[in-house]
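[Meeting: bench + compute handoff]

Bench side (C.D.) handed over the final construct sequence. Compute side (W.E.) agreed to return the predicted structure before the next meeting so the bench team could plan truncations. Sequence as handed over:
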Amino acid sequence: MTDHDGLFKSVISEFFLEFLELFFPEIARDIEPASIQEKEQELLTDLIGGKTNRVDIIRQVRLKQEATLVLILVEPQSYDEKAFGERLFRYFIRLYDKYRLPVLPVAVLSYDSPKQAAPNSYAVGLRGFTTVTFNYATIQLNRLAWQEFADKANPVACAFMAKMGMAKADRPTVKLTAIERLTELKLNPAQVRLVAGFIDTYLNLDTNEQLKFEQATQNLPKAKQEVVMDLTTSWERKGIQQGKKEGKKEGKKEGKKEGIREGEQRLLLKQLTHRYGSLTVEEEAQIGTLTEKQLEKLAQALLDFKSRDELTGWLTKSAPKKA
């Protein structure tokens, strides 16, 4: 099951300043980049409902030519929740009471429906008398047109386009546009994979859409074609199935039960070498000991790895121990 809020949290956390530049440009221009500091996550317990929530993203920043610090609270939300405004209000109270600093609360709404404008305030009162009105910024992606973000040189725009309002027929175009923009940004490999994986999660094309995507890709310069295809992580998923087919053919040809496993193993080694460069003798040996089922698990896990250390850890944990 996809952790939607977790995906959004990963992208926003990795590209926090770029997130602000995209949606709050005036505030972003006034922030000292070196001052951005991650604050410890806060737990909020509902004593009546018995539920504990965790504040997702809290950053402390310093504004230029200002003596005070500011807290920015960002809460991704992947489903419509009637009590969301109240929950955000309680987060705000907790943070303000603890730090006594100005707090900018931001809601990032990523659900597909409803599409009517979501609330951006919460009021407390009694019989017509309003005690307090709490306002927060709302970014409702299904009400944003992806075309307005297509030319933004911003990794958050590349990712979030995949969840913005679009016609079904536009899905291949949006995916190609987002990935093409991504290839033009100066990001490290882990950051590129993070955004590419995000895009592929929400624009996982069906057979007809994939065909249109491939046809449109052919119109790109040859060098860019290769980069775009490399960043389309769904091709890695298809590679798993390709490995099975190759293995079955080899097993049939050679009459060996090991054919399927060897086909998957070869393809997986190609993917790992492409991503991380040459593997060590020990890593190749560890992969050589994996069963067909373990190879499939590693191929799936590879899609989420952010560094080579995660591969090493996976192999250490999963590969059979030497006698």
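W.E. noted at the follow-up: The beta strands are 37-38, 43-46, 51-54, 57-62, 69-77, 103-109, 121-126, 129-135, 137-140. C.D. will use this when planning the next construct.
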